[in-house]
Amino acid sequence: MHTSDPSKKRKTGQFATTPCGQLDGEFTRPYGVAFDSKHKSIVVTDNYNHRLQFFSQQGGKFLSKFGSEGTGNGQLDNPKGVCIQPATNNVIVTDDSRLQVFSVSTSSGSSSSLVNLFTVGSDERGSEPSQFNVPRGICCTARGDIIVADCDNNRMQMIDCKGRHVRAFGSLGNENDQFHFPWGVCVQEDANRMIITDCYNQRLSVWSVDGCEPILEVPVQGYPQGICTYPRTHRIVVSCWGSNDIKVLDCKTKNEWDVIQQFGSKGEQPGQFVSPCGVCIDDRGVLIVADRFNDRVQMFC
To answer: Collapsing DSSP states into helix, strand and coil, what is residue 294?
Structure first.
């Protein structure tokens, strides 16, 4: 994606376009996407198939898969969010009521070797600290702390790099310190802020990066879900399931957040979406979108 000219027509590509599948490289409801800069790969949570799939950064070629259905350590129960932890390159995944942190070892054949380091939560949904109720979006701070959108608890939780609870913040409502179905989260370290997609309140909720102070609310129509940030800029990308489009915002100052580009509509053609959710950007500036109900991932440059 070229950020210098937002009006420039985008080139689009896609992979795994076969409708609902279980074979290698096929998806049934892809949910989250993340870019692994170390291994030059893209990680996708294949929700209904209860697994992660790994694809090459160049061309989206299938590399490997990991996971099986279950609630044991190393198993996945409808995985949703995924991110790569800075420095360690650990893979962090949320599923129905947990988050799991995996280290990645050398891949071979069609299976990827991931080792469970720790699990937070249990196989039962809950609302106590370090319990979750359908957690979705997830990201990490530069120091490795994990921020989780604890969606059906209408709150955010912060977990340190060892799996210990740091804090929870938010409750159901539409005040500046409340949420209604928080879905995605990203961090802009240089601006000392985290940005949360507050889906049913149709806004972005901006907080200090430590989660202690709400800073700003930014209206975003279309029920925002996924969110990611451009490296070394203040621009962010938001996917909106209600309007089936992607919005690019330029956060020029604390109080000026402008939509500078918007693309997509409901449909099955390249560049169209049906409930786009997870988004990420690789080190080439290529935008990657989990096009959930089209059972595919799309790439834009």
So the answer is: helix
Phi, psi of 224, rounded to the nearest 5 degrees: -65, 145
Distance set, CA 265 to CA 7, 149, 276 (Å): 17, 26, 10
**What is the residue whose two structure tokens read 């977990």?**
159
In a domain, 13, yes or no: no
Give mean pLDDT, residues 72-86: 94
Say if residues 85 and 161 touch (Cβ distance below 8 Å). Answer: yes
In a domain, residue 106? The reply is yes
Please, how many CA atoms are within 13 Å of residue 207, restricted to the half-sphere of its CB? 25
Which residue matches tokens 């027509």? Answer: 9
| 8 A C-beta contact, residue 273 and residue 245 | yes
Task: Tell the burial category of 239 from Cβ atoms under 10 Å away from its Cβ (0-12, 13-18, 19+).
Answer: buried
**pLDDT higher than threshold 90 for residue 264:** yes
Q: What is the pLDDT of residues 20-67, one digit of tens each?
A: 789 999 999 999 999 998 889 999 999 999 999 999 998 889 999 999
- Count how many residues are written for the chain: 301
Tally the domains of the chain. Answer: 1
